[in-house]
């Protein structure tokens, strides 16, 4: 079937498709939606995590696992983490969609899988799969998401308070939902105990966003701010920001830049492209992204995405100098951006 909007999957109450593909530049929306869909299998369901590298090694594995009954629970759900374009998972997903039956739903996430990829086209052409492309919502949409998420926690969140919370988390939906969970516990809220959220409640419990927000790291590297690298590395290490999270955030930004750069190459001005509602760029990041579009052309972006994918694989593998490779890559990115400015 055709791709659907993430909001449509937010409303489903059961997993009717054997394969659900979530992609797009907004990692927060993708992650939150994947967690919600996984939860539909039930609290007692067994979860099996697979990766796209496993799919490339054994294309029959996904269909076999989707057809296998759980030995330990009444239900089973499979999560598939896709790196890169998704081409290495193509044969496995094709086998799953063509199988006679599948009793375990597969929820796949891949931030670097584009809407024009072979994998998305395969899913769109099947009656057994569905794809959703997750873009960064604009501020108005984020307010609605915040209010809806608050209601689910038993909280009443006004427009002003929703805006305050959004600014606090820099538009990060996953962090926003965690903050709402904290506020609900603090106010002893529940579906049967509605509580009004005040600005004071948010201020008292609000997250120190520098602990979770990696936008400064992204903009330091992609903006070519070589002199800021030592302080940036020290801050990231001090607050415990995971290296793989930074690499994935850089990959998401690179995918976003690739999409926007195509419009620039077609003749549009970078500032016009970034400020458009369809850009998916959070308003606080528009200046930085516009500057990065001037620095990174399509060839550089393609090389960047390849190196980020290699680095993520190294960070996931055991016995590699992942931390050293991470620092070298980020340093190389910053130096390349500085030369291109």
List keywords for this structure.
two-stranded parallel sheet; 341 residues; 7 strands; five-stranded parallel β-sheet; 55% helix; 9% strand; Rossmann fold; Helicase, Ruva Protein, domain 3; globular; Zinc Finger, Delta Prime, domain 3
Quick description:
By secondary structure, this protein is of the alpha/beta class.
What structural class do the secondary elements suggest?
alpha/beta
CATH topology of the largest domain: Rossmann fold
Largest sheet features:
5 strands, parallel
Adjacency order of strands in the biggest sheet: 2-3-4-1-5
Bin the strand percentage: 5-15%
CATH class wording of the largest domain = Alpha Beta
Mean pLDDT: 87
Number of domains: 3
Helix and strand pattern: HEHEHHEHEHEHEHHEHHHHHHHH
Using the alpha-carbon principal axes, give the shape.
globular
Radius of gyration: 21 Å
CATH-assigned homologous superfamily of the largest domain: P-loop containing nucleotide triphosphate hydrolases
Task: List segments where confidence is low: pLDDT < 50 over at least 5 consecutive residues.
Answer: 208-212
SS element count, helices: 17
Total strand segments = 7
Characterization of this structure:
The chain is α/β, with parallel strands linked by helices and 341 residues long. The chain folds into three domains: 128 residues, 3-Layer(aba) Sandwich (Rossmann fold), CATH 3.40.50.300; 71 residues, Orthogonal Bundle (Helicase, Ruva Protein, domain 3); 126 residues, Zinc Finger, Delta Prime, domain 3, CATH 1.20.272.10. It is built from 17 helices and seven strands. The strands form two sheets. Strands 2-3-4-1-5 form a five-stranded parallel sheet, with helices on both faces. Strand 3, helix 5 and strand 4 form a beta-alpha-beta unit. Helix 5 runs parallel beside helix 6, helix 11 crosses helix 13 and helix 13 runs antiparallel to helix 16. About 1% of the residues have low confidence.
């Amino acid at each position: 079937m055709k791709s659907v909007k993430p909001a449509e999957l937010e409303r489903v109450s059961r997993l009717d498709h054997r394969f659900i593909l979530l992609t797009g530049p907004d990692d927060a929306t993708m992650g939150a939606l994947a967690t919600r869909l996984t939860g539909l299998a039930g609290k007692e369901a067994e979860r099996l995590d697979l990766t796209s590298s496993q799919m490339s090694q054994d294309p029959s594995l996904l269909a076999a696992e989707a057809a296998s009954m759980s030995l330990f629970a009444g239900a089973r759900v499979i999560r598939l983490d896709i790196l890169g374009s998704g081409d290495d998972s193509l044969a496995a997903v094709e086998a799953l969609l063509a199988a006679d039956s599948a009793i375990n739903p597969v929820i796949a996430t891949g931030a670097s899988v584009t809407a024009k990829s072979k994998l998305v086209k395969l899913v769109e052409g099947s009656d057994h799969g569905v794809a959703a492309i997750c873009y960064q919502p604009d501020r108005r949409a984020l307010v609605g998401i915040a209010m809806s998420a608050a209601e689910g926690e038993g909280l009443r969140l006004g427009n002003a308070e929703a805006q305050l919370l959004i600014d606090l988390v820099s538009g990060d939906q996953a962090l926003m939902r965690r903050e709402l969970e904290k506020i609900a516990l603090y106010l002893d809220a529940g579906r049967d105990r509605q509580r009004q959220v005040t600005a004071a409640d948010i201020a008292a419990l609000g997250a120190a966003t520098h602990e979770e927000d990696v936008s400064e790291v992204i903009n330091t590297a992609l903006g070519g701010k070589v002199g800021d690298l030592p302080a940036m590395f020290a801050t990231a290490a001090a607050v415990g920001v995971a290296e793989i999270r930074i690499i994935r955030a850089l990959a998401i930004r690179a995918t976003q830049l690739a999409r926007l750069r195509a419009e620039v190459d077609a003749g549009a001005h970078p500032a016009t492209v970034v400020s458009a509602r369809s850009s998916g760029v959070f308003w606080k990041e528009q200046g930085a992204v516009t500057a990065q579009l001037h620095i990174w052309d399509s060839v550089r972006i393609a090389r960047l995405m390849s190196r980020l994918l290699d680095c993520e694989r190294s960070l996931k593998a055991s016995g590699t100098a992942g931390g050293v490779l991470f620092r070298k890559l980020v340093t190389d990115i910053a130096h390349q951006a500085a030369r291109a400015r």
